Amino acid sequence: MGQVINTHQLFNKLKECGFDEKQAEAVLDTIENIQSARLEEVATKADIESLRGDMKVLQWGVALILAVVAIPFMKSFFS
Questions:
Q1: What is the pTM of this model?
Q2: Structural domain boundaries enclosing 10
Q3: By CB atoms within 10 Å of each CB, which of 3, 13, 30, 60 scores lowest?
Q4: Neighbours of 24 (CB within 10 A)
């Protein structure tokens, strides 16, 4: 997954570079919001398994529809 950011170390580095506490906290808040947003977009194993199950149902549904359409069509050739 992504890199973990040491916020304490970053906070200190920002202060060393001339940021005041309020500015450094604003930068850290922004970074944390970006990281949280990215984590919300990540699919879990449960999400993937759920999609696999949905795809199986969809596959069987399509196969059934094709069978219902194809059988009468094929029957006309052999009658």
A1: 0.47
A2: 1-42
A3: 3
A4: 20
